[in-house]
Amino acid sequence: MYDLFNKGFEKVLIDGEEKKLRERIILEKNKKHEIDVVVDEIFVSEFTDDAKAAHERASEAIERALHESDGLVKIIDVAGESHIVSAKFMCPYDGFSFPEIEPRLFSFNSPHGACPQCNGLGSKYFFGDEPCDTCKGVRLRPEALNVFLRSVKEDERKNIVDLTSSSIDDAQKFFDTLKLTKKEEEISRVVIKEILSRLKFMQNVGIEYLTLDRKANTLSGGEAQRIRLASQLGSGLVGALYVLDEPTIGLHQRDNDKLIETLKHLRDIGNTVIVVEHDEDTIFASDYIVDLGPGAGVHGGNVVVSGWLDDLLTAKTNKSGSRTLSYLREETAIDMPKKRRTADRGKIKIRGASKFNINNVNVDIPLSKLVAITGVSGSGKSTFLYEILHRNFLAKFDKRYRTAKIYNCKEFSGTEYLARSILIDQSPIGRTPRSNPATYTGAFTHIRDLFAMSEEARARGWGPGRFSFNVKGGRCEVCQGNGLVAVEMHFLPTVYVTCDMCNGKRFMKETLEVKYKKKSIFDVLSMTVEEALSFFEDIPAIADRLKTLSDVGLGYLELGQSATTLSGGEAQRVRIASELYRPLSAKAVYLLDEPTVGLHYDDVQKLIDILQKLVERGNSVIIIEHNLDVLKCADYIVDMGPEGGAGGGNIVAQGTPEVVSKTDGSHTGYYLKRALKKIKLCD
After folding, report:
1. PROSITE patterns of this UniProt entry (predicted)?
2. pLDDT digits over 463-515, tens only?
3. 376 part of a folded domain
4. How far apart are the first and last CA of the chain?
5. pLDDT at 477
6. Most distant CA pair in the chain: distance in Å?
7. Are 548 and 577 in contact (CB under 8 A)?
């Protein structure tokens, strides 16, 4: 107290009671006391009489108080209420302190922002799934989570984790309604402008339903490509060449329109945009087209037609014979079925379906029909197919997963009408170069049997195994039947070079000496499906399998083509071909996820024919699809939405294409109505 008196202070507040330092002050030793030094007292009337002087006096008093108290000031107002403020990154009430608030504090990739327990990994164990005890999986230190931004909407506040777990749409709405003082608004204007522009770019390319913290390895190829496109929009480059490979993958027609406008914007600001695409709306939005073909594989590789789109569409005739141009000019169209399948063959009844954005949905899926699941991007289609349908079918039909448990819904019934389920996705048909269309379809087994039955093979005592590149005996052991040898480059990617022993033929010289119709086993594997179909036309066990590959539009593939070189669409069609060859058996349900990805009009027609053939056999086909040609040929449509993310997960419309096309509020119905009208005009 004596020191305070020497510094010029006259009064103190002890436990709220005013005491003068000139007086003798006695404190109880066993009691904790709250002592405040009175730095200055300023009356309201002083502000009225001379506001400038009063402000200066108040500033000096606060500065002195901060100095003496090491950063803490208590201000008592006219009503007697006290307000504690701090000049440090510390809460004056509970003592919670902050490091300096800077961008790296909010990054789990920086030691300044990462949770000290898990080092920013979010899990208790550098590959486990169990969340960290300290940060609960959010990966940031506690201080970073106690900095908030506030919105004017119901006084909502969010920390950085709340924001990044929001969808792009929700984040945009939050930043649009930030609660800021004029000073804060002036300081943050540029930053907020940049944030909103980037959010807008992502909305424009149709990924507004994604959350900002979505992991990159969970994105589809189309989503990843559109994120890269959004980042390019933000760069504002001019005079650049952009090359995109099917950017409309996974997009609904409603979202297509946004993407097309984005591509046009890139063009209009002075860039060149080259797009590999089958989507009709994108083609019609282009200025110039180059059509390659006329067929696929060995039948392609030529420019069938090129020119300004308007000129090609308005020309009197399609002189080039381009199949693409024929569809664009409406000279050719994909046929609709003459009638819809309406007979009741049973239903899969789902009640109370709930997973991700799907919340307590009830729906019936008719069986022995071609059923399409539609909706805008992020509406819940994949969740419905994989997490509800596929998972419950596995629990019913797959021995490895068989259980009485029902997943992600309250009731799942109707499986008594089915005997098995098959998911035909676009994952590779094999993980090694040894897997190929011939092995996957089973044709290679019969081809090896043929070679083993030849006179030369029997004379040498060779069986079918001699003609396999998967086992020792007839294969080249230098490359172990791969035809390629891996050369490790230490810190660089592994390089694969052609085997110099077999020259890439995969078999020993002696094995290749055995011929069938003057062709070695290597020659046969080098044939296209079309060539092999003709070559083995008198061997039904082989020809029938190859015909299914040809029927799904894969006649251009080589029999021995490595599975790792097949596109997702090609791998999916190889799977469909193997199912087509199966003998008629018990009823199955086939689940497909956007099988038209990468398909031309002609290939879409073939796919529709194949799917219809599967249904005609008494099976059920359920597909996720946006392609209007497929949708108009479906027997039944379940349209989800109405929007993506939190705005989706509901059944917007269901029924025949005609019923859905007349449903108000259905984005799919709007575009489907145009497609059905177009067909009627063509007829």
Report:
1. ABC_TRANSPORTER_1, ABC_TRANSPORTER_2
2. 999 999 989 999 999 999 989 898 888 878 888 899 999 999 999 999 999 99
3. yes
4. 102
5. 94
6. 125
7. yes
Show Cβ contacts of residue 191 under 8 Å, excluding neighbours closer than 6 positions.
none
> How buried is 678 (Cβ within 10 angstroms: 0-12 exposed, 13-18 middle, 19+ buried)?
middle
* Three-state secondary structure of 296-327: CHHHCCEEEEEEEHHHHHHCCCCCCCCHHHHH
Number of helices (H), then strands (E), belonging to the chain: the values are 26, 22
| pLDDT tens for each residue of 382-400 | 999 999 999 999 999 999 9
Domain co-membership, 677 together with 586: yes
Token pair listed for 683:
């007829």
**Contact partners, residue 362, CB within 8 Å, separation at least 6:** 350, 351, 352, 353, 651
Distances in Å between the Cα of 472 and the Cα atoms of 467, 498, 507, 525 are 10, 19, 10, 18
Six token digits for residue 310? 């308007």
Q: How far apart are CA 680 and CA 683, in angstroms?
A: 5
Same domain, 451 and 389: no
Q: Which residues pair with 14 in a beta bridge?
A: 17, 35
CB of 254 closer than 8 Å to CB of 376: yes
Which residues does the chain have with pLDDT short of 50?
681-683
Angle between helices 568-581 and 540-551 (to 10 degrees): 140
> Which CATH number covers residue 615?
3.40.50.300
